[in-house]
């Protein structure tokens, strides 16, 4: 039985708490949040106890810590959990600072802690299957990866100020997926960005519309396009082209019902945002972590290294957008 302490009872902390509560191999023991009322409400829902972050880190009856606090706290909380012998599942991104991620991974390595990072899209049944078929050789050698990712609505301009910007906050998921599907590291990143959706996002120093091209040492290419607006829902599609064919994964609709009439064929809207679209992925992700901790697998994926590499690409994309030049990635 893996006994959990959950840190952060916000949007993502609630999703993960539900998965822990439903898994017969796990127990939701403690919940901590900077706002006591948030921790109390979630704890009451699942019969867990409220505790401070420090109490969870030191508790003898906690095996694993789920970190769902705001990004700025992840690195210090990973280090504290690692130094107290806990297994760690941490939400993306690990940190907005590559140096801090590297320092944190050294602590994790020294303590031989189990650490998994919440790049949930790898666990989406459709995208996961797409990656499996690449590895089985269904399309031969991968040559081009295309990732399309558009949110239904932009966040408030105030949010973007503390987010690290679109490339680190939003595109980080797509950068990880591009690495995951390509199976080879990218060595150069070229980005374009604009504030076309909300001028206030531009005034705040960020973009809401962006495109990135990346290339690997062997010449393979990935293209990512992002928008903070899609009038038709949460647009999440991928396409991988190879020497023997092409794999694609379409959007998921609210139902599979279609209306056919003289005007044409109409499908239901696509799922609106991440909580619906990736509900199954979040559960599969955390159940994978629980299984890894149970079986003693110390290297579940996505790893801390995956978190570091995605952050390096996000930093390179940000610099490329700012300078208008391609940026090499070490
Ligand atoms: N993988 C995904 O798809 C996904 C989706 C949403 C959020 N996230 C990530 O999860 C993290 C949390 O995002 P959210 O949307 O749930 O935010 P949120 O604001 O809804 O929740 C965060 C919670 O953490 C609490 N908190 C603040 N400081 C804390 C501290 N020092 N220790 C403990 N708790 C603290 C807040 O009171 C709040 O209840 C972010 O890093 C975000 O990037 C990932």
- Cofactors, ions and other ligands in the entry: nicotinamide-adenine-dinucleotide
Tell me the fraction of residues in β-strands, as a range: 25-35%
The secondary-structure element order is EHEHEHEHEHEHEHHHEHEEEEEEHHHE
**Structural class designation:** alpha/beta
Give the % helix: 25-40%
Poorly predicted regions are none
How many DSSP helices? Answer: 13
Number of discrete domains: 2
How does this structure look, described?
With 330 residues, the protein is an alpha/beta fold. The chain folds into 2 domains: 2-113, Rossmann fold; 122-274 and 310-328, Dihydrodipicolinate Reductase, domain 2. The protein is 39% helix and 25% strand. It is built from 13 helices and 15 strands. It has helices spanning 11-22, 36-46, 53-58, 74-83, 98-110, 125-135, 157-161, 166-169, 171-182, 199-203, 274-277, 279-295, 304-323, and strands at 2-7, 26-32, 49-50, 64-67, 87-91, 115-118, 142-150, 186-194, 209-216, 221-227, 235-242, 245-249, 258-261, 264-267, 327-328. A hairpin with a 2-residue loop joins strand 13 (258-261) and strand 14 (264-267). It is globular and about 60 Å long. The N and C termini lie far apart (41 Å). The site of nicotinamide-adenine-dinucleotide has 23 residues, from helix 1.
């Amino acid at each position: 039985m893996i006994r959990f302490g959950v840190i952060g009872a916000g949007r993502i902390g609630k999703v993960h708490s539900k998965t822990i509560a439903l898994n017969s191999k796990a127990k939701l023991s403690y919940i901590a949040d900077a706002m006591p009322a948030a921790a109390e409400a979630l704890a009451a829902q699942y019969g867990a106890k409220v505790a401070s972050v420090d109490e969870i880190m030191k508790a003898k009856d906690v095996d694993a810590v789920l970190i769902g606090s705001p990004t700025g706290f992840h690195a210090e909380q990973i280090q504290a959990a690692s130094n107290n012998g806990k297994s760690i599942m941490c939400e993306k991104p690990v940190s907005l600072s590559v140096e801090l991620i590297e320092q944190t991974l050294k602590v994790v390595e020294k303590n031989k802690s189990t650490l998994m990072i919440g790049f949930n899209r790898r666990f989406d049944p459709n995208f996961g299957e797409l990656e499996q078929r690449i590895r089985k050789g269904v399309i031969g050698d991968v040559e081009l990866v295309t990732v399309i990712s558009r949110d239904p609505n932009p966040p408030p301009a105030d949010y973007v100020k503390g987010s690290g910007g679109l490339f680190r906050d939003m595109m980080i998921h797509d950068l990880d997926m591009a690495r995951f599907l390509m199976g080879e590291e990218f060595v150069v990143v070229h980005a374009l960005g604009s504030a076309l959706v909300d001028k206030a996002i531009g005034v705040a120093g960020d973009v809401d519309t962006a495109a990135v091209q990346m290339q690997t040492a062997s010449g393979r290419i990935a293209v990512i396009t992002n928008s903070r607006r899609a009038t038709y829902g949460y647009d999440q599609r991928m396409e991988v082209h190879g020497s023997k064919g092409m794999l694609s994964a379409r959007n998921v609709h609210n139902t599979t019902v279609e209306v056919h009439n003289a005007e044409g064929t109409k499908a239901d809207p696509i799922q609106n945002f991440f909580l619906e679209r990736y509900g199954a992925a979040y559960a599969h992700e955390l159940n994978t972590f629980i299984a890894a901790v149970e079986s003693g697998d110390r290297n579940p994926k996505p790893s801390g290294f995956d978190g570091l590499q995605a952050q390096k690409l996000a930093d390179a994309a940000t610099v490329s957008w700012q300078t208008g030049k391609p940026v090499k990635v070490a």
